[in-house]
Amino acid sequence: MFERILIMAPHTDDGEFGCGGTIARFIEEKKTIFYVAFSSAEASLPPEFPQDALVEEVKMATKTIGIQDDNLILLDFEVRKFPEQRQEILDKMLELKDQLKPNVVFLPSPNDTHQDHLTVYEEGFRAFKDMTMFGYELPWNNLTFNTEAFILLSEKHIEKKVEAIGKYTSQKSRLYSKPDFIKGLARTRGVQIGTTYAEAFEMVRWVL
Description:
The chain is of the alpha/beta class.
C-alpha cells in the first residue's frame, strides 16, 4: 500500500529509536524510504565529542539500516528551540512534501512531551494532513501512548535496529539505547498482538 515513506526525526536518532525495525522491514520490502532529521543537536552533545559527531553517526546508522545516502536529509534547526522556529519548520515540511511526494509519514507521537518533538508533530500534522500518518513511540518522552497500530517484525528487523542505534556512540550512556531495552520493548509490543516482535504506533490519520 505504501511505496514512498517519509520518516521525520526531530533530532538524529529519533527515527531509528521510534521505528527502526519498521524501516528495516520496509527496506527489505523494497520501499523507498526518506529520512529527514531536523537537527543534529550539537548543543546537546557530551563535551568530549566533536560538534559533527551526530552528523557522522546518523550517516552510519541510516546506511546500516539500508537507507540510501541520497534519501538522508539533514537540516540545521537549533535543538530545544523548535517552538520558536515552527513557521520555518512548516515551510520546510511543505517543501519536502512537494519534493519527495510521500504517501505515508512517520513522526513523533502527539503525546510526546519534548518541545522539539511536539513541534514536529504539530507542524507535521498541518503539512501532511491529507495523507496517512503514524506517531512513533519514544517511551522516555511519552506522557501516555495509545497502541492503536502495530507493524509485525521479525528478529532480523530488530537486530538491524539495534545495530543502527549502536552507531550512535555519543548516545550510548542513555538507558534506552541498550539492546536489552530495545528488544524488550519490541517483545512487549509483539506479545500484545500474539507475535514475537512488533513496533506500535499511534494512528494520527488513516487515508485509504
